[in-house]
Amino acid sequence: MINKNEIHKRWNFSAAKWRILILAVFAILALGACLLSLLQGAVSVSVQEIGQALSGNLQGSSQQIIMNIRLPRTIVGALVGMNLALSGAILQAVMKNPLADPHIIGISSGAGLAGVTIMILFPAAESLIAPVSFVGAMAAAAAVYVLAWKGGIRPVRVILAGVAVSSFLGAGISGLLIFYSDRVHGALMWMVGGLAARSWPHVAIILPYAVVGLLLALAGARHLNILQLGDETAKGLGLRVELTRILMTAIAAVLAASSVSVVGLLGFVGLIVPHAARLLIGSDYRFLLPASALLGISVVTASDTFARTIFAPTELPVGIIMAAVGAPFFLFLLRREL
Amino acid sequence: MGKLVTKNLTVNLQGKEILTDITISFKAGLRTAIIGPNGCGKSTLLRAISGMSHHYHGEVLLDDKKLRSFKQRELSKKIAILPQGTSAPMDLTVGELVEYGRFPYRSWFKGNTKEDKEAVNWAIEQTKLQDLIERQVSSLSGGERQRAWIAMALAQKPEILLLDEPTTYLDIAHQLEVMKIVEELNQKFKITVVMVLHDINHARQYADEIVVIKNHQIFSQGKPEEVLTEQMLEHVFGVVAEKFVNEAGKSIWMPRSLVEKKEMDAAR
């Protein structure tokens, strides 16, 4: 990790001040991205109108657009970004692997198979997509964990079990898509991940997990710090390593599952955002977790705004934007870091 | 206090017996070195007496209380261990690492107490790391890094310090530096030290007692002069060694050659 220490030395910053500054910048970014997401769209609204709408002093179509379309969509995007980023950050510490993200514990493939099954086999039960894919995601994560267990958990076993479970479930998804190729479109959109038509019911699904997940993750920050020192040292410091790993993995799984079950299989946020945050703020989880959360909010809401407006009136799924921008950025990070 | 005793300690890992019926006592306030050939079970013994692994038959007692009955957190206030092959995040500084040593004393509702700060400062002083606090652990030389990890262990304010081959990969000056720090900690603060060592001359010089392990069992235990003999080195390590006595009357061992395979079998 090069630049963090270099930069704050050059500007004669103490490490603590630097971290606070970065957090403040990320917070402003997040607020700015959310505001932009409220402002931009097919119908443009003004900052005043947003203020009026939020305080209940606006009538008419602008009020409808802000309160029932833009605001819930922005909130869903923000929460999804936060959850996926937190989930990835946690898993990177738990697995002691910089490439860990929610996919690695089977979240995406579990949610994917469950969601696609509902969409293709039971299209009438659309309202069940979120809860069923949540269950699917959690079941896949549990399966990965159980398969990797052998008198304890080794991160590399989890990663390999994750790969195996993901490709197994992936076979199911591919099978469904091929047998019912006439119904593929909706499933495809969902597998890329998007925020189109996400509204208050979706906020209601994800919000409780986001709040509880955030609080638990922050409460576990010091434990994650210790876990990064390796199992033996962590045990020597009195940390119950296996218990911590299970609990933190469960928190990461819930955060990611609640997100993908609402917006589909949004990739890359969970991998790239924690990396970018780590590059700037370091790997102390007391700071890295809030930084990842804020950056996750910024990235998803900003990408979604971009996805909605660039080819307007056609809307791109945000997942395409994130992968298209995320992959090159990830390569850039890789070459810098490793 | 800080006395560790094992009673009929037997460890099986994946169907293989790693330690057989070890009954031994590590006396409080002394430095004990564990020596033995590769794969004889030294590290496993260290893990068992550190409370890191409870997968054993028999008992380990800390000040006459069963090690199993301690909470991991309480144990880590009494026993600190420096394992082999430590690793830390790239950007972790020495100061941060040493502060992690206070983890067993922290709680969710308590910040950095005066006691924490004192313990950290004390640990940094003892390991002479004052000038390196802001440095990243990953940027340190091998010897400095080992001192930083020892400082973390010291911040736990342990009664017992366990070291697993603390001088491996260090040059001779840094080996000496680490052994001197350990000696000082033991003499000034009465910290009980148990260390796995490869260098028998280090064991002779820096340990009050030596435990020799061969084939998963205790071969001998006692004062360095009693334990380090030509016969022992031949039987346990399979080397023919010569003893030199320096001006101060201290003996130094020099391995000369390997014992012939046939003789080894006969000796067994």
Could you walk me through the main structural features you see in this protein, from its secondary elements to its overall organization?
The complex is a heterodimer of chains A (338) and B (268). Chain A is mainly alpha-helical and 338 residues long. Chain A contains 15 helices and no strands. Chain A has helices spanning 3-10, 15-39, 47-54, 60-94, 107-121, 129-148, 155-179, 184-192, 200-219, 221-227, 231-236, 241-263, 269-281, 285-309, 318-337. In chain A, α6 (129-148) packs antiparallel against α12 (241-263) and α14 (285-309) packs across α15 (318-337). Chain A is globular and about 65 Å long. Chain B is of the alpha/beta class and 268 residues long. Chain B is 34% helix and 28% strand. Chain B is built from ten helices and twelve strands. Chain B has helices at residues 42-50, 72-75, 94-100, 114-126, 142-155, 172-189, 200-206, 224-227, 230-237, 261-267; strands at 4-13, 16-26, 31-35, 57-62, 65-66, 79-82, 160-164, 192-196, 209-214, 217-222, 239-245, 251-258. A six-stranded mixed β-sheet of chain B has the order 6-7-8-3-9-10, sandwiched between helices. The longest helix of chain B has 18 residues, at 172-189. The relative contact order of chain B is 0.16. The interface between A and B is medium-sized, with 22 and 34 residues.
- Quote the beta fraction of chain B: 25-35%
Count of runs of 4 or more consecutive helical residues of chain B: 10
Q: What's the total number of strands of chain B?
A: 12
Span between termini of chain B? 39 Å
Radius of gyration of chain B: 19 Å
Mean pLDDT of chain A: 87
Largest interface: A-B, 22 and 34 residues
Please state roughly what percent of the residues of chain A sit in beta strands, choosing from under 5%, 5-15%, 15-25%, 25-35%, 35-45% or over 45%: under 5%
Count of DSSP strands of chain A: 0
> Helical segment tally of chain A?
15
Instruction: Please mark out the parts of chain A with pLDDT under 50 across 5 or more consecutive residues, or reply none.
Output: none
Which percent bin holds the helix content of chain B? 25-40%
What coarse outline of chain A follows from CA principal-axis ratios? globular
